[in-house]
Amino acid sequence: MPPSDHSTPPVWTRRRVLRTLFCSSAALALNVHRQLLSAAEAATEPGDRHWLMIGDFGSQLPAQTAVAGAMKTYLARLGIRPEALLLLGDNFYKEMPGGLESPRWRTGFEDMYPADAFPGPCPAILGNHDYGDNPNGDRIQLDYAQKKGTRWTMPHKWYRMDFPVARPLVTFLFLDTNTPAVRGVDKDPGKSRAALSPEEAAAQWAWLDAEFAKTDRAPWTIVAGHHPVYSNGHHGDTKDIVEKLAPRLQRHRVPLYLCGHDHDQQHLELEGTATSFVLSGCGGARVRPMERTDRGPYANPVYGFTHLQVSSRRLLLRHIDANGNQLHAFSKTPDGRVTIEAA
């Protein structure tokens, strides 16, 4: 979520955009050794599948367009077609006049992330601004997913998707982390506190437990929500999600949790936890400095996106900036071994 002055953005010139992107990916990327990702470095193995992800992107600021362009260039350079583009919440900031018929669906989604670059589905989850910036904003986004021909995918506030459809390699469990307790403390001045109802929140946790109990999940299970469990950024750890979700992730040895909400990139490994926590919240809204630096291995307030590459023997995750540079990468094997590939 953006700072409180987001509703009155300044006038952005091309020079200012370029300067802002440079500052975000250079001046703020302190002590980060940047590596331009080449096709050789991204060489795939037979059976590899790819996903790109962004969070906190629907700002209508030039940074959103810049990151979208960087993703398209990145995919073209590497010659890969992603299984899906994962949308980690705060999909639309500010008002959407017209609701389902708003022109922002075209400018902020369909044309911004076109089908020729992202031919697969675009699974989306709800962020705090998706609830708070428009009356019934959650319902509008759910209903748009029913529109014929759209790649916007949101069959429910929480849902499961398996990729690929035949012989799935990854089971994604998408959550709505806008619980009453989370929204009650969200730093969201002047915005609606709309959230899941208590009954919806209870139903979601029961659904998640039922999914974890199933034996038909793919070799990799990845959980995604808008709010972080743990974060070094502006919002910090999310108390209700720490209490409700973290024990479930640990109990079921979930290898990866994906989120946004803080406007930065992070990769956190906490002692005694089976899960790697990845934050990708810099798809278009203004980035913010980190609040703490004592947890890692990586945290950086920089515009960009995240690339997930998965095979049966390992997952590989890369944080990429808006200039197409790899800033951080790590791999993880099914037995939980994490290897930093680039830092």
Describe the structure.
The protein is of the alpha/beta class. The chain has a single domain (35-342), classed as Metallo-dependent phosphatases (Purple Acid Phosphatase, chain A, domain 2, 4-Layer Sandwich), CATH 3.60.21.10. 25% of the residues lie in helices and 22% in strands. The chain has helices at residues 14-27, 62-78, 104-110, 128-132, 137-144, 180-185, 198-213, 239-244, 246-251; strands spanning 35-36, 49-54, 84-87, 122-123, 152-153, 159-163, 170-174, 220-224, 256-259, 265-268, 276-280, 297-300, 304-310, 315-321, 325-332, 338-342. The strands form 3 sheets. Strands 1, 2, 3, 13, 14, 15 and 16 form a 7-stranded mixed beta sheet that branches. The chain has a 7-stranded mixed beta sheet with strand order 6-7-8-9-11-10-12, with no helix packed on it. Strand 6 (159-163) and strand 7 (170-174) form a beta hairpin. The longest helix has 17 residues, at 62-78. The chain is globular, with a radius of gyration of 18 Å. Residues 1-35 have low confidence and may be disordered.
